[in-house]
Amino acid sequence: MFVIDGGLRFSQCPLVLTHDQILAELRAQVGARKFTQKAFADYLKIAPARIVEILKGTRRIQPHEMDRVAAWLNIADNDRIPPAPEGAMPVRTVPLLGDVPGGPWREAVQNSSSVVQVAIPGARPHAYALRVVGDSMDKIVNDGATIIIDPDDRDLFDKWLYVVRNGDSEVTFKQYRESPARLVPCSRNPDHKVIPITDRSYEIIGRVVLITVAPDQAALD
């Protein structure tokens, strides 16, 4: 097992299991049918439905439950969870807030009940995920892919990717280009046009710091 922050490891401090490590081991043991979800719920004195939510990732293991869960899984005082590979980024759970258009302007759909697990570069405590809808960025990301947004990173740099909101509270995902300032679709579809941003009020929601994509099996046929 490894500590929450590898840079803060001290010889006199015990190793601390992270939430995601404990959750991964819980899922593995449930998948191996080492115990029933009802027995585990009875042990924690919570409803079985809460166990289902934990396994799905829609409910976090609460701080006061962490030690009891680790003890149940028999990982409190051993090294059953291997260390992370050198250079690996920690996996974090971030909220999936809904959809962002990868096409014409439209109002973003909010849905904060879902979460995704991703390896995010750098310290980005307020990062969240959006699902791309449309084909205006299909040279970079396909419809249905997930992008990770850092709302604390809003400085504009040429060629970087951003989620932007206009004065009508509509949101889109585009590439920013300078001279002149504009939002550029990165698409094979010629119907998508460059959006000038000099004549309207725009708000930078955040920079796209990660794009997650699933394999496109059709492209391999």
Please explain how this structure is put together.
Strands 2-1-3-4-9-5-6-7-8 form a nine-stranded mixed β-sheet, with no helix packed on it. With 221 residues, the chain is of the alpha+beta class. Helix 2 crosses helix 3 (48-56). It contains four helices and nine strands, in the order ααααβββββββββ. The protein has helices at 19-31, 37-44, 48-56, 66-72, and strands spanning 91-101, 109-119, 128-133, 146-150, 161-166, 171-177, 182-184, 195-196, 202-212. A hairpin with a 4-residue loop joins strand 5 (161-166) and strand 6. It folds into two domains: 6-72, 434 Repressor (Amino-terminal Domain) (Orthogonal Bundle), CATH 1.10.260; 91-220, Umud Fragment, subunit A (Ribbon), CATH 2.10.109.10.
